[in-house]
Amino acid sequence: MPGLPHSKWLALVAGSLMLLAACGERPANTSHAVTARIERSQPYIEPVTQPDKPVFAADVPNNKPRIAIIIDDLGNSRTYGLASIALPGAVTVAIMPHTPYGPELAEAAYAQGKEIMLHMPMSNIAEKYTVTDTLTADMSRETFDAVLNGAIASVPHATGLNNHTGSELTALDEPMRWLMANLAPRGLFFIDSRTTADSVAGLHADEAGIPNASRQVFLDNEINREAIDREYRQLLHVARKQGQAIAIGHPHPETLAYLQEVITYLPQQGFELVYASELLHTPATKSAPDLQDALQQGNLETTSSPASETP
């Protein structure tokens, strides 16, 4: 929009998005067939005075539970991509490779100081949601690396990677070793979207010494305000209990409108919104058998909500 500062343009886009959501409209190129109507209920705002005592040392200064929110699937819609970037605070954006608006959105997010990730497509058991540049189990090492290298190059300023679907690939040892071997020299971190409970991605990230973490909550497996509100409550519960939590959402009108309303309340509720990279653990170098033992004993990060093949 000529003459309008970029920050005001993003705010205008965000406001327009909330209006679209209230009217039940969706972007024409959305990959979901379901059109959910946003309900006119109030968003969940947790009381500032919490009735239960947290398990962490809440009385220690600056020991607030920390939350990271990742918005996946950016790149195919300019409007909804800009609206995701315009969400207040430290929201991480994950951009699909080789998409029409991916580079533009990456530059816009970078200009706003947002954290950018590559949302890397990986094969899934149901063979659904397959897109260009999907890493698959039948690829040779050479092909695997070529596809991954091209994807990384297509998203400027990406500092990390998480998986798009991947219930098949993230459960396989060899492809996950290849993935981590590619990421390690680049200094990229890894977030396991946990689309399967059988994922070994975190195991191999640890083995390669790559800073990594796993998501705990999917905000919008069900695209309606009531369900998003329920998952947001779960996010706060997990963060309060464990000291931190990672959620993944998508650029649906309902999701973005809801987050636009509730994120600004987090500080007064006693939570800190941070980028995904701030919730990583950097593993010590371990042998694979030691990591496998830890996984079997439940000492590695696991998801607190059901695994889902959310695209």
What attributes does this structure have?
311 residues; alpha/beta; 9-stranded parallel sheet; 10 helices; globular
Outline the structure in words:
With 311 residues, the chain is an alpha/beta fold. It has helices at residues 6-22, 78-85, 102-111, 141-153, 173-183, 201-208, 225-242, 253-262, 266-269, 288-296; strands spanning 66-74, 92-95, 116-122, 160-165, 189-192, 212-214, 217-218, 244-249, 272-273. The chain is built from 10 helices and 9 strands. Strands 1, 2, 3, 4, 5, 6, 7, 8 and 9 form a 9-stranded parallel beta sheet that branches. Helix 4 links the parallel strand 3 (116-122) and strand 4 (160-165). Helix 2 (78-85) packs parallel to helix 3 (102-111), helix 4 (141-153) packs across helix 5 (173-183) and helix 6 (201-208) packs antiparallel against helix 10 (288-296).
What letter string, H or E per element, gives the SSE order? HEHEHEHEHEHEEHEHHEH
Rg estimate, integer Å: 19 Å
Overall body shape: globular
Weakly predicted, low-confidence segments: 18-61, 286-292, 294-306
Distance between the termini: 32 Å
Short description:
The protein has helices at 6-22, 78-85, 102-111, 141-153, 173-183, 201-208, 225-242, 253-262, 266-269, 288-296, and strands at residues 66-74, 92-95, 116-122, 160-165, 189-192, 212-214, 217-218, 244-249, 272-273. With 311 residues, it is an alpha/beta fold. Helix 5 (173-183) crosses helix 6.
